[in-house]
Design goal:
Elements: H1 2-14, H2 18-39, H3 43-58, E1 64-71, H4 78-86, E2 88-95, H5 102-119, H6 127-138, H7 143-150, E3 152-156, E4 170-176, H8 187-197, E5 198-209, H9 231-238, H10 250-260, E6 263-267, E7 270-271, H11 287-290, E8 292-300
Helix pairs in contact: 2-5, 3-4, 5-6, 8-10
The structure holds S-adenosylmethionine.
Length: 309
Amino acid sequence: MIKYLATACALKIFSLSPQTKKMYRFLGNTVGARSRAKAGLPASYVYRAKRILSIFEKYNIPQEGAKLIELGTGWVHWESTVLRLFYNAEFTLFDVWDNRQFQAYKAYASGLCDVFDNEIGISSPRHKEARKLLEAIVTAHSFAGLYDLLGFRYVIEPTGTLRKLGPETYDACFSCNVFEHIDQAILPEYIKDIYRLLKPGGYSFITIDLTDHLEIYDQSVCKKNYLKYSDAAWKLCFENDVQYFNRVQREEWLNLFSQAGFELVEEESLFQPVRVRVNKKYEGLDKKNIECVTLGIVHRKPISHHGQT
Ligand SMILES: C[S@@+](CC[C@H](N)C(=O)[O-])C[C@H]1O[C@@H](n2cnc3c(N)ncnc32)[C@H](O)[C@@H]1O
């Protein structure tokens, strides 16, 4: 618990002013890039690569000419890169600040090359072609060169909203480990905007990490340790701007999507026993909500809505 408290304190200090936040981001980008490049491709990213490909195949997303958007693309554009190997589609890579890490990107792409023949899209008729493209990616010298090769459009929107994106533009949107970082106050609008920017019949493939992100620094605490705290205690002692995460739970997420007009087509979530006494705020939640650590949800925008055809 000491590391948990010390990390929360350090993150609060980094959140004090625009200057300290800038310093945090600079350190995050330089130190983060170095350590990711050194550690190489994590096994979880190989799993994610296989999962996004299988889910796109399952829902018949067209391999030619689709328009796709990744929300919170982060440091290595992971899902977009993997999909692009097999999908000759137009990709928009959306984020709220530039946290790209080219060294890490290259290390992950090389790592993918190493496992590609045995693990990635092996039953696809495009496997050979995809491998060739991956080999070209590994030789890229910059993100600009990479975007030319892959036709990626990288969009930074510091307000964190999707308001500027046009309606009925995309066949699918996807995102991994991002929604827990979106300001809770803008979530209803954000999810309505996803609905707006998808074409009728379009899909949303979202994975949300519901764990306490301070647990990464102190694995002696429960993965959902944050459930112990009231809103007031959380805000005062733990919530910070540089590694913000909301504490929105499974049922609230499902409600937000359904209120925006989406149909839930599939849920593949992970659950783990919780060994903390939950705060009053969460007492009304059932076991499935309390114990959900990863929420994997597929939604579809109906083709006709409210009597329209
Ligand atoms: C934990 S990182 C995940 C990055 C990437 N998806 C991955 O897993 O490698 C969270 C990302 O969410 C982004 N983010 C935060 N708020 C966002 C918002 N309102 N819209 C889109 N992305 C956002 C952050 O900038 C960051 O890149």
